Amino acid sequence: MAPPSALSTDHRSNGCSEPSAAAPHEPGLNKHRANVQMSKFPGPPKFDDKLEEREYLKGRLAAAFRIFGRYGFDEGVAGHITVRDPVEPTTFWVNPFGVAFSLIKKSDLIRVDHTGRVVDGGEDHVLYESFNGIVLVEKEGQQIAACLGNKKAALLQNHGLLTVGGTIEAAVFWFISLEKCCQAQLAADAAAGGRGQETVKIADDDAAFTNKAIGTPAAGWFSAKPLFDVIEKECGEDYMQ
Predict the structure, then answer these.
(1) Coil, strand or helix: which one is 20?
(2) b vs e for 102-135, b when ≥16 Cβ sit within 10 Å of the residue's Cβ?
(3) With 0-12 CB in 10 A as exposed, 13-18 as middle and 19+ as buried, what is 96?
(4) pLDDT, tens only, 182-194
(5) CA-based angle 228:232:236, to the nearest 5?
(6) Could you tell me the pTM of the whole model?
(7) For the chain, N or C: smaller number of CB within 10 Å?
(8) How many CA atoms lie within 13 A of 240 on its CB side?
């Protein structure tokens, strides 16, 4: 049975629902205090040496694959996470074709240009080939990028989720969070539909405030930090090899 909160609004004594200025999940925290707290979040490290930054990002990318493997986001040999190379920004690092997410190491990663040609690491083989043999062409990538715009996520119809971020950590957290949101939405819709009712949608103002509080790039990076800490603890130096 669906919880009452999923099917009915919280009516005040005057009979109408009024949005609250309190931040969700933290009673008494108003918008001003929430913004102050957000500014205290730590951020990713800064690098003066681009080569040093490259090695750091490769390590974080390998850890990201380990996290996705734990969540079961790998699908056979399909799927990838990429990061732009700080030394040569027209290229990016990606996982090699056919290596399990849960086993990927830093040394496994390959660097490719915008055409998919391998320029560093691995062997020269075709990238992005799906199970039905269709290779993603440049035009499709451009269309997806145009649709995505300045947003952080896209739902690819009949395919799956896509997230982006200024950091690997943020992109990873947006993906995991969006996947959980989709699961919760489907469960709530099914529960409400089974009773012949509809779920109650949150107000646009509440959604906008929540996004401003926990949907920033800094919040995305910080929210993913525990996931990376766990991988580092459990995998040791294996993924860094």
Answers:
(1) coil
(2) eebbbebbbbbeeeeebeebbeeeebeeeeeeee
(3) middle
(4) 999 999 999 999 9
(5) 165
(6) 0.76
(7) N
(8) 11
